Amino acid sequence: MQSALVACGLGPGAGGLVMLSADAVKKPSTLPLFNGRRREAVKDSAEVSFTSSTMSAAATLANWHFSPAPLNRGSAGFGRAGKAAWLLALLQASGLGILLTIGCCMAAHAFDGTKTPADDPTPMQAFRNGTQAYKAGDLSGASQMLEFAASKGHALAQWKLARMYSEGDGVPHDDLKAFQYYQAIVDAHGEDSPDTPQARFVSSAIVALGSYYLSGIPNSRVQPNPRHANEMFQYAATYFGDSDAQYNLGRIYLDGNAAQDRDPMMAARWLRLAADKGHHPAQAVLGHVLFSGDDMPRQAARGLMYLTLARDGANGDRDQWIIDLYNKAFAEATPDERDMCLTYLGQFLKDHS
User: Fold this and answer.
1) Which tens digits make up the pLDDT trace of 9-30?
2) Is 5 contained in some domain?
3) What is the pTM assigned to this prediction?
């Protein structure tokens, strides 16, 4: 909190002026999530926190974080009525769905796994052994145990393997296998209640699928499908209240794509939903839009507030673009706008503490 206040202009956090091109936040290729950065976005969207005691085995996976407070689905205009039919149609629309299986991967069962012959560990035991091996640095052993658990429908193992394949972490990098594991989770659990402990990583799997659909997977059946990507993000954003999906939708409405015309007002709506949950890229983009006033009435002080929050949460070189946007806005802000930024920032931190 203190560093955020300093960054708003009362100390050395102000920084110098860094000039950006006029379309620095107009093109998806300039910000994380799109094009060449897609695999990082899949990784980021999968940083999940499991808080239920039933998910205690997942605590051995390192550094999972995720935004709290699911979206009020009523406000997004997406009721529970017809959800099952809608999602089924969505999954079938790609022609993949449950047909994309992985080797011996079976249809997913309960999250605590199914019983196996006495000589084999249960899926839950295999998952625990796999996560322990991963933590110990035995990536080969980890992948074998996780593959076994995943083949029995253990969704946490499927999720962890999807991340490993998307990053080439202990296994050969293979986006198609990552896609298939994410798909298996969504096929089996995409209709689970958003109040269940597993909902957060189910929604992250949906976001990962949407990210793959943005540009497709080369030399595979997964072709670019912006409309399907938009639908996946829409579902995760409304039903699960996923902040990564809300940010993605905000960027899509701000930039436009082959399936969606630009709509800056709708972009601001989605970006604010994510920004108010602490999503730093959303805070940065929303802050820039409000400060610049290019696409809507200018709100410089509030825009600077969101840019300050984003700068305070920026993560090293990967988020240098956030720091650049903040520095540029701060250099252009008037003393009154900086003072008002402090007022807004104090209220925001109080309301979201």
Assistant:
1) 333 333 222 222 223 333 233 3
2) yes
3) 0.71
Residue 138: CB atoms within 10 A of its CB come to 15
Q: Cα–chain-centroid distance for residue 261?
A: 22
- The domain of 189 spans 53-67+75-241
Main-chain phi, psi angles of 277, to 5 degrees: -95, 5
DSSP class of 119: T
Contact between 230 and 211 under an 8 Å Cβ cutoff? The reply is no
CB 201, CB 111: distance < 8 Å: no
pLDDT of residue 316: 82
Name 136's Cβ contacts closer than 8 Å, sequence gap at least 6: none
Query: For 296, left (φ over 0), alpha (ψ -120 to 50), or beta?
Result: beta
β-partners of residue 260 are 257
Contact indicator for 222, 176 with CB cutoff of 8 Å: yes
Reported as a single tens digit per residue, the pLDDT across 165-177 is 999 999 999 999 9
- Please name the residues in contact with 302: beta carbons below 8 A apart, sequence gap of 6 or more: 290, 341, 344
Diameter of the chain measured on Cα atoms = 72
- The closest of 317, 316, 300 to 308, measured between CA atoms, is 300
57 lies in some domain = yes
Given the structure tokens 């931190």, which residue do they identify? 349
| Other Cβ atoms closer than 10 A to 325 | 26
Which region, left, alpha or beta, applies to residue 63 given φ > 0 means left and ψ of -120 to 50 means alpha? left
Assign residue 283 the CATH number of its domain: 1.25.40
Residue 89 covered by a domain: yes
**Helices (H), ranges, 94-218:** 123-135, 139-151, 155-167, 175-189, 199-215
pLDDT per position as a tens digit, 280-300:
999 999 999 999 999 899 999
Nearest in space to 4 (alpha carbons), one of 277, 332, 271, 350:
350
Express the helix, strand and coil content of the chain in percent, nearest 5 each.
65, 0, 35
CA 103 vs CA 2, 76, 106, 164, 215: distances in Å: 52, 38, 9, 17, 25
